[in-house]
User: Fold these one by one.
Assistant:
Number 1:
Amino acid sequence: MENYKQFLVTLSSAGVVGVIAIIFVLRWVLYYQRGLAWDGGLAEFNWHPVLNVCGFIILQGLAIIVYRLPWSWKYSKLTMKFIHASLNLVAFIFAVVATVAVFDYHNAAKIPNMYSLHSWVGLAAVILYCLQLVLGVSLYLLPFAPMSWRAALMPVHVYSGLFIFTSVIAVALMGITEKLIFALTNPKYKDSPPEAIFVNVLGLLLVLYGGLILWIATRQSWKRPSDQTLHTLHSNGGGEDDTKVGPALSQLSDGAEGDSFGEVRRRNNKFDDQVN
Amino acid sequence: MENYKQFLVTLSSAGVVGVIAIIFVLRWVLYYQRGLAWDGGLAEFNWHPVLNVCGFIILQGLAIIVYRLPWSWKYSKLTMKFIHASLNLVAFIFAVVATVAVFDYHNAAKIPNMYSLHSWVGLAAVILYCLQLVLGVSLYLLPFAPMSWRAALMPVHVYSGLFIFTSVIAVALMGITEKLIFALTNPKYKDSPPEAIFVNVLGLLLVLYGGLILWIATRQSWKRPSDQTLHTLHSNGGGEDDTKVGPALSQLSDGAEGDSFGEVRRRNNKFDDQVN
């Protein structure tokens, strides 16, 4: 991998910033706000920022860059697709529960739903994320989509993923803005009490995390090499897991399946390597 | 150009969405709010959204994609760099005046400055944009930077540009959220009066504009070809402006300058073509 040291520094930074952001959102709701519960009150609302930060942002970020981790290159593309899809599925479930929490709270407190720009862009992001997940699995994980479709739609899949991820961070920034204006009354947001400063820093951390993930995801030189390249590399003694990796790459994704099913996947996987 | 029709549709959509966004922000301040003036009051504040939408978002978006317009390919790379830098400079001036307007208004109304996440990320974006402009001109417009620096920093220049542009849109969404909560009192934002719906739509238009600009800016196949490729194309009768284009590409950027100055630029321009 080119610039391996730079990759490690960027990845570690994203990891550290992500973990600090999770600590910040937890401290926000547990220390400054009324903790977590599922009671229709403010403690139920608090699941909204917690689940969205942990799942819809940090976990989605990890799902985006999972192909770029060099330690994952010994696993077949199919295995990595499963991991990519599973992480996104978990992030989606977090986002859905987070959305249910805020609707529940609004309904109990008789606050209208879906009036703010935050809610409009937020719900759009959840719906688009669901669509992205369904289309992604149908096109790239299941073996039925013709190769021409896979190739033609790959740039759209990649771009949509990054666009949704970025939008979710923008939605979180709007959410923080709303919540601090509504929750801080004495002193107010404009008086900059410690909670205001603390949660503003959480917002900055989310922007920074987004910036690091997008940097990693858009470096061409950090892409996962094609399975064929990896196979050649390992067959020539380039890897430590020579005996394990060869079969993993060349067979596990194809050979374990029935003949025609395996053949379609074999053809498609070969194509994926070219377009990804 | 590959997918020329798709390019035209995307570009036209960005143009239409951008113009509608400008109409929306003008209608917001002129019809729903107290118009425009420079009096320390709300009418002065209104320059803040108007200048930021028109300059810091729409104009910056145009500056980002200006190299991709095929009609610009008959002009030398140097000419296009001047246009790219000039558009960004105008957008920066808009952003600075927009920032002065809101500080002026806050000071007159005794509202604290710089307490919100909107103001933190917004000021950071203005400062980073200034830095980007100064570094961009120093590295790529002036002829002094060594070629190795130009090449090494080009990915950073491109990424920072897109990152700042995206951040500014996120800042605008936070600004809209804040302003609608503060400005709408009877009926409130949560009661969804016409102004709330109208300005929420403005927010969606900005997200859409950002999405279209980022799509155009990240398509590799829509990049400006190197000057050498263009020159060959036109010399072989590939263009309608054969006599005009050849000299424009090969001489205007280099030949008009003094010998040593021209030589450095010639070398650098050649390198730019390879890395851009």
Note: The domain at 4-225 of chain B is CATH 1.20.120.1770 (Four Helix Bundle (Hemerythrin (Met), subunit A)).
Number 2:
Amino acid sequence: MAVAYELRCRDCGKRFKNDPLSSCDECFSPLEVVYDMDAAKRTFTRESIAGGPASMWRYQSLLPVPEDYAAPTPAGWTPLLEAPRLAKRIGAKNLFIKNDAVCLPTLSFKDRVVSVALANAKIFGFDTVGCSSTGNLANAVAAQAVRMGFKTYILVPADLEPAKILNTQVYGATLVRVEGNYDHVNRLSSQIAERFHWGFVNVNLRPYYAEGSKTVGYEIAEQLGWRLPDNVVVPMAGGSLITKIRKAFKELVELGLVAEKQVRFFGAQATGCSPISTAVKAGSDIIEPQRPNTIARSLAIGNPADGPYAARAIRDSGGWAEDVSDVEIVSAIQELAETEGVFTETAGGVTTAVTARLYAHGRISPDDVTVSCITGNGLKTTDALAGKYEAERTIRPRMADFEEFVAQHEVRGIVVDDMVSGELVGGEYVR
Amino acid sequence: MAVAYELRCRDCGKRFKNDPLSSCDECFSPLEVVYDMDAAKRTFTRESIAGGPASMWRYQSLLPVPEDYAAPTPAGWTPLLEAPRLAKRIGAKNLFIKNDAVCLPTLSFKDRVVSVALANAKIFGFDTVGCSSTGNLANAVAAQAVRMGFKTYILVPADLEPAKILNTQVYGATLVRVEGNYDHVNRLSSQIAERFHWGFVNVNLRPYYAEGSKTVGYEIAEQLGWRLPDNVVVPMAGGSLITKIRKAFKELVELGLVAEKQVRFFGAQATGCSPISTAVKAGSDIIEPQRPNTIARSLAIGNPADGPYAARAIRDSGGWAEDVSDVEIVSAIQELAETEGVFTETAGGVTTAVTARLYAHGRISPDDVTVSCITGNGLKTTDALAGKYEAERTIRPRMADFEEFVAQHEVRGIVVDDMVSGELVGGEYVR
């Protein structure tokens, strides 16, 4: 049985039928998808979900697609990993990693939003799709559009990481490098979507796109055994993800799939681009745009579209926001890899470093069940680790050479146990 | 109910109890794990498998681990993708991609073998593990060992791709760069494993390690709806994978989970390292070692341990082997990305180019159900595509600039449809 959905203004509540629209024509606030929750009570059950595929499409009846929609590419259903070694290091006890560094098909949580957005691009009859992106979204749109037969234009800031550039071009997408930061790129994209009548996933398809993020929240709850965590730490670029995980949890409570609970939401940003965390710390919902200057380029959005909503969600939940330096970001990338075997991109370094600081500052209690959301893969931002590992001298393929190598390493104390050498001092990583 | 397993010599059949051993002390042939197939008939059923996790551990009762073993890291259960656009281009109809480019946790099929090998390293009480590797295995061992508390030594040829080096070091593994090719590295590793009493996954744990590869075969059969394909195309480095997929299919037939069928196995190598395909083409099982010289470094094993068994498996099945040039490998990487949205490393370029040639040469019939095994991720070998994409000039964030950009692109014909510009001429990609 299908669950009906439509668009509604997030602020004034005005209703819209399903169309490629992103904001209310009366109050200019963003539109959001709402569902017939009475119908959902019948179709969106623990049993129906458990019988679904091992992908985000197990939650299809609360995603804005027709009942019979068949996604051409699997996405989502990523591991929720226990993180006892990282936990020990940062003074936590019940820490989990939601690992979208290995999200199918292009290794970031953006695959989730793109899956839903492109489904709607098909429904609305677009033949060309696109996006403005800081990298991960570019990869996801380029790869998924191929399997759906779209022409693709991807607009990015000119200084994007090489791996993210290649991982867009290789799929045959037309890449447009724009002089300026993401906010310039995004503004141009809005104009293009309107002028050319193209489906831009994060412009005129944004309400549908954003619904894909909910699946992170559904998965966390299901993977915890249908219960909500005490805290969630979420990286913030445009600010949408944190609001959508919150929406997911609310829907699960409303449908009786999990017990109600006050989940606290914590936002993570890089200090070099921290408009939302700055607002939260000031006790405000008003976002002062910033000019980004951080290695965490996937979070480098100085004027975040959902910033006010993210700030409000955090404060309403009793959470907090923090931001960390580029040095801390790099150390945290290494820390997460060395403790839990998860290699994340710079955004994941932000989330990990912020999580550590929240424990260090007592904002999260050690006994709480906390989920730290890792959203992208380290192979996409290898340049962030440039110079961090020395090129060990080579040895000849002889036992004597190897024995000498081992002896030198033991003297220098470089064995795996000691490689985990970060120390947390006053909430900052020092190595 | 547990399924008992033990080691047995692949040639003389001598039985061994479970120990870190790789070859028969009588005839020096490799050892292999065999199972109590009567017990397996009761435990390894379609129903028990369907009720298992969405990982390779759904097949746990036919893997060499205790019944109650709990893997600390999810691995496997990768998508089997329909590939209609690639199929059309190469003259196929029923082509599937087994996509281990997105295998958890480190994006290659080596995660499967390492999962099983490290489980046994724990059982045998090793505190230090290692491997000789052409890259993917290094990544998998380094990442998975962290979550199991092992010390790790990884030996690689000194000239490995930068992303594979970084993706080993980041987990805190001790990386040992050896002057020479893989065969030198591997010989040294055998000596080290013995001298230091360490668990080397592809040396003294090799029989257990190799069993992990079977899960590729199990998954293909299950994902095809519990039937076997007509053909499988498999890349060959050491030659183990192709023999283990065959073993998997045989076990499934023996247990009555699929109907018996003559599956033909096709091996894929780079011409610059083609000892197995050379033997197959000569109608021989005798492998003449080669000195590798190819960009497909993950396949650059000049003296493949399982080469004779791979050659025999291919010929017995009625299959064939082919090898392709470095130029074809790069074109095929692009072709696969542009048609199916899958970005693979050089080894996947080998498999894709060989698959195309097999159709072009009439060795595979268009109507056959064929599975092409993609085993690693393109983000690990980005250097292979160096210079393949021009850095488009940047535009200013203005509509006029964008309109000019689009107009120029349309004149040059560079839109997505035409980007797929490879043509297959006589079984070789030309671009």
Note: Residues 413-427 of chain B have pLDDT under 50 and may be disordered.
